[in-house]
Amino acid sequence: MGFHFPSVVHAKQLIQKPFSNTKNIPRGFLAVYIGEKSNMKRYVIPVSYLNQPSFQYLLSQSEEEFGFNHPMGGLTIPCTEDAFINLISCLNA
């Protein structure tokens, strides 16, 4: 007997990685960089996440750590990849 987690599967379908350049980002989405400075991964997420309080908290942490100088050229969020995917899964539940 297996378990089915539809919100987790749905979250993985919404989060797309990697995109080689900004031309490949669909309308209504934005690129974010997740992880430590030495090992960042790029994700493309729906713009609607910007309205979620838990996502806004991550953004405020990012502002405290990086200010407006994002070393990767895009929005950089200082959290682990697992924590980010868990947050996205909760947003889609």
How would you describe this protein?
InterPro entries: SAUR_fam. One of its GO terms (biological process) is response to auxin. Pfam families: Auxin_inducible. Belongs to the ARG7 family. This is Small auxin up regulated protein. This protein has 3 helices and 3 strands; from the N terminus they run αββαβα. The chain is α+β, with helices and mostly antiparallel strands and 93 residues long. It has one domain. Strands 2-1-3 form a 3-stranded mixed β-sheet. A hairpin with a 6-residue loop joins strand 1 and strand 2. The longest helix is centred in the middle third of the chain and has 14 residues.
List the helices and strands and how they pair.
Blueprint: H1 6-14, E1 29-34, E2 41-46, H2 53-66, E3 75-77, H3 81-91
Parallel strand pairs: 1-3
Antiparallel strand pairs: 1-2
Family: Belongs to the ARG7 family.
Protein name: Small auxin up regulated protein
β-strand percent reads: 15-25%
**Integer-rounded radius of gyration:** 13 Å
Secondary-structure-derived class: alpha+beta
| Helix proportion range | 25-40%
Instruction: Give the helices and strands as they follow along the chain.
Output: HEEHEH
Distance between the termini: 23 Å
Sheet with the most strands: spatial strand order = 2-1-3
List how many beta strands DSSP finds. 3
Biggest sheet character? 3 strands, mixed
Low-confidence runs of at least 5 consecutive residues: 1-11
Instruction: Count up the helices.
Output: 3
Shape: globular
The count of domains is: 1
The pLDDT mean sits at 74
GO biological process, one term: response to auxin
Family: Belongs to the ARG7 family.
Pfam families: Auxin_inducible
Protein name: Small auxin up regulated protein
